[in-house]
Amino acid sequence: MTGSLRSLTVLGATGSIGASTLDLIRRNRDEWRVVALTAHSNAAELAKLAREFGAEVAVVADEVHLPALREALAGSGIEAAGGPAALIEAAARGADVTVAAIVGCAGLAPTMAAIEQGGIIALANKEALVSAGEVMMAAVARHGATLLPIDSEHNAIFQCLTGNNHAHVRWITLTASGGPFRDWSWERLSAATPAEAVRHPNWDMGAKISVDSATMFNKGLELIEAYHLFPVGLDKLRIIVHPQSVVHSMVEYRDGSTLAQLGPSDMRVPIASALAWPARMDTPCAPLDLAEIGELTFRKPDEVRFPATRLAREAAQAGGAIPAVLNAANEIAVAAFLGGQISFTRISAQVEDVLGSYAPPPPGSLSDVLEVDTEARARARVLVTST
Ligand code: NAD
Ligand code: MG
């Protein structure tokens, strides 16, 4: 990396991606200046991070926690703010790099505010891109922002595409671990508990994405994410199950060459790739020891037990507002599953039901997307209570 100081904002600083990002920054403190750090409600942890990194401003999205944040930051000279408008305002201050690491469509408006400043957006928050699709990509182009994917698969594809022409791509293959239930029968799946679903075999992640990995909605959302990031056409995007999570994704070219990116199951690798881009930086991650790993295996996904990737492909095909409906319905279903209100197999069934009942016209703006999101959530909640 160059010697000049770069500015950084982390939206969702207290989460799993936020922690991995700040771990890398901590090891390179003299290269970064922190503008804004945000969290949903954990004021104590946010204040601790803001003090450690000398942030300009700290924001709790849930205003109820603003007094606690103010108290925890007293005397530090760090601004404390709360509520959704403050979150957007903090993102709109702009930074050389904004790490979008809020979970869910809740991250969409602040991510769009950062895009409008035209810097680098290191995107982990896939739900925002899935929901806003064309609206977000148009804003990226209009404001000259640079969208760098942190999601490990998309970061791998981004690296495999660098220096190559999209027109020569034959296939882009997203790898999927298959999640903790990849070998479970339908009967066993219907009795799966939240504790079992969040215990991912390879990755240590937030609760929502862990459940998404178990249902395969994570791969479904990633298919839609890839569709927007890498415009080669939906018919060139494939999914393969790869339980070891070593090959993070692949690109096959017309001459028969397949390029893949491999690495440890540690999100600091793709995060570092985005933070240092187009250069490279050191990470503390263990080197890849393929002799120790021994075997890499691959198999086709099973869309009967895991309908999520089929639903996502259909939503991407329909386009417009439909992926936002799928995402919102999934967010509500996952929360209901984690809250013990619906069974594991009801998640995809409920998403399919909402998709069948609500097909709004394509959104033309951020507020259109948020309207679709709100309505789809309301419909999904009705299904939860009537189940
Ligand atoms: P997490 O639950 O650990 O953290 C989420 C962060 O967002 C926290 O800082 C939380 O305070 C904040 N947040 C939650 N709800 C919010 C709201 N309503 N408003 C404002 N802020 C809110 O989640 P995570 O695992 O770090 O995932 C974050 C995003 O990155 C997700 O979109 C996920 O799909 C994506 N992602 C995560 C991983 C991973 O390994 N964890 C890998 C790839 C992609
Ligand atoms: Mg991923």
TrEMBL record:
<feature type="domain" description="DXP reductoisomerase C-terminal">
    <location>
        <begin position="262"/>
        <end position="378"/>
    </location>
</feature>
<feature type="binding site">
    <location>
        <position position="177"/>
    </location>
    <ligand>
        <name>1-deoxy-D-xylulose 5-phosphate</name>
    </ligand>
</feature>
<dbReference type="Pfam" id="PF02670">
    <property type="entry name" value="DXP_reductoisom"/>
</dbReference>
<feature type="binding site">
    <location>
        <position position="15"/>
    </location>
    <ligand>
        <name>NADPH</name>
    </ligand>
</feature>
<dbReference type="Pfam" id="PF13288">
    <property type="entry name" value="DXPR_C"/>
</dbReference>
<keyword id="KW-0414">Isoprene biosynthesis</keyword>
<keyword id="KW-0479">Metal-binding</keyword>
<dbReference type="GO" id="GO:0016853">
    <property type="term" value="F:isomerase activity"/>
</dbReference>
<feature type="binding site">
    <location>
        <position position="219"/>
    </location>
    <ligand>
        <name>1-deoxy-D-xylulose 5-phosphate</name>
    </ligand>
</feature>
<feature type="binding site">
    <location>
        <position position="125"/>
    </location>
    <ligand>
        <name>NADPH</name>
    </ligand>
</feature>
<dbReference type="InterPro" id="IPR036169">
    <property type="entry name" value="DXPR_C_sf"/>
</dbReference>
<dbReference type="GO" id="GO:0030145">
    <property type="term" value="F:manganese ion binding"/>
</dbReference>
<protein>
    <recommendedName>
        <fullName>1-deoxy-D-xylulose 5-phosphate reductoisomerase</fullName>
        <ecNumber>1.1.1.267</ecNumber>
    </recommendedName>
</protein>
<keyword id="KW-0560">Oxidoreductase</keyword>
<dbReference type="InterPro" id="IPR013512">
    <property type="entry name" value="DXP_reductoisomerase_N"/>
</dbReference>
<feature type="binding site">
    <location>
        <position position="213"/>
    </location>
    <ligand>
        <name>1-deoxy-D-xylulose 5-phosphate</name>
    </ligand>
</feature>
<feature type="binding site">
    <location>
        <position position="206"/>
    </location>
    <ligand>
        <name>NADPH</name>
    </ligand>
</feature>
<keyword id="KW-0460">Magnesium</keyword>
<feature type="binding site">
    <location>
        <position position="16"/>
    </location>
    <ligand>
        <name>NADPH</name>
    </ligand>
</feature>
<feature type="binding site">
    <location>
        <position position="151"/>
    </location>
    <ligand>
        <name>Mn(2+)</name>
    </ligand>
</feature>
<dbReference type="InterPro" id="IPR026877">
    <property type="entry name" value="DXPR_C"/>
</dbReference>
<keyword id="KW-0464">Manganese</keyword>
<feature type="binding site">
    <location>
        <position position="127"/>
    </location>
    <ligand>
        <name>NADPH</name>
    </ligand>
</feature>
<dbReference type="InterPro" id="IPR036291">
    <property type="entry name" value="NAD(P)-bd_dom_sf"/>
</dbReference>
<feature type="binding site">
    <location>
        <position position="152"/>
    </location>
    <ligand>
        <name>1-deoxy-D-xylulose 5-phosphate</name>
    </ligand>
</feature>
<keyword id="KW-0413">Isomerase</keyword>
<feature type="binding site">
    <location>
        <position position="200"/>
    </location>
    <ligand>
        <name>1-deoxy-D-xylulose 5-phosphate</name>
    </ligand>
</feature>
<dbReference type="Pfam" id="PF08436">
    <property type="entry name" value="DXP_redisom_C"/>
</dbReference>
<feature type="domain" description="1-deoxy-D-xylulose 5-phosphate reductoisomerase C-terminal">
    <location>
        <begin position="147"/>
        <end position="230"/>
    </location>
</feature>
<feature type="binding site">
    <location>
        <position position="222"/>
    </location>
    <ligand>
        <name>1-deoxy-D-xylulose 5-phosphate</name>
    </ligand>
</feature>
<feature type="binding site">
    <location>
        <position position="17"/>
    </location>
    <ligand>
        <name>NADPH</name>
    </ligand>
</feature>
<feature type="binding site">
    <location>
        <position position="153"/>
    </location>
    <ligand>
        <name>1-deoxy-D-xylulose 5-phosphate</name>
    </ligand>
</feature>
<dbReference type="GO" id="GO:0070402">
    <property type="term" value="F:NADPH binding"/>
</dbReference>
<feature type="binding site">
    <location>
        <position position="14"/>
    </location>
    <ligand>
        <name>NADPH</name>
    </ligand>
</feature>
<comment type="similarity">
    <text>Belongs to the DXR family.</text>
</comment>
<dbReference type="GO" id="GO:0051484">
    <property type="term" value="P:isopentenyl diphosphate biosynthetic process, methylerythritol 4-phosphate pathway involved in terpenoid biosynthetic process"/>
</dbReference>
<comment type="pathway">
    <text>Isoprenoid biosynthesis; isopentenyl diphosphate biosynthesis via DXP pathway; isopentenyl diphosphate from 1-deoxy-D-xylulose 5-phosphate: step 1/6.</text>
</comment>
<keyword id="KW-0521">NADP</keyword>
<feature type="binding site">
    <location>
        <position position="218"/>
    </location>
    <ligand>
        <name>1-deoxy-D-xylulose 5-phosphate</name>
    </ligand>
</feature>
<feature type="binding site">
    <location>
        <position position="153"/>
    </location>
    <ligand>
        <name>Mn(2+)</name>
    </ligand>
</feature>
<feature type="binding site">
    <location>
        <position position="126"/>
    </location>
    <ligand>
        <name>1-deoxy-D-xylulose 5-phosphate</name>
    </ligand>
</feature>
<comment type="function">
    <text>Catalyzes the NADPH-dependent rearrangement and reduction of 1-deoxy-D-xylulose-5-phosphate (DXP) to 2-C-methyl-D-erythritol 4-phosphate (MEP).</text>
</comment>
